[in-house]
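Morning run. Coffee first, then this:
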Amino acid sequence: MIELDFAIHRDSSLTDVVWHEVGEVSLRYDCFLGDIIFKVASVDISAQWGWVPILDFAICMRMIGDTLSLGRPDVFDFTESGVIIDFIPRGNEVVITPEYAPGASVVLMSEFQNAAEQMLSQVRARIEADHPDLRENPHYRNALRGYW
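And here it is:
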């Protein structure tokens, strides 16, 4: 059982954002900041720090799912804090080990991939509903390349 969810607390740390023009780096790191809810079975590896870039996290989880399907390990690095989450494929499972919480969790790879895809879809739906101009932003489309 995996829970992969989010809460956006503020849309941007920038001032005067023009949503149809804001650049990809700003979209991924300065916009849509909040908390990540991430639980695998009984292990809680959430990042409820209030400042996690939600769009970047969702895109990265989806990309990590793709890498794992190739049998390769991957890492998510919380750039803002320097802590990581390791993702190691093991057959049809993935071992998830956060640097900032005790223990490791194991989940079916397909379950992780489905949760990552669903999270990215939910993030997109939320931010596009709040900021319809994003759909016209080529940097936003580029950030989502392959997942548009």
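Residues 38 and 44 are 6 Å apart (CA to CA). Good start to the day.
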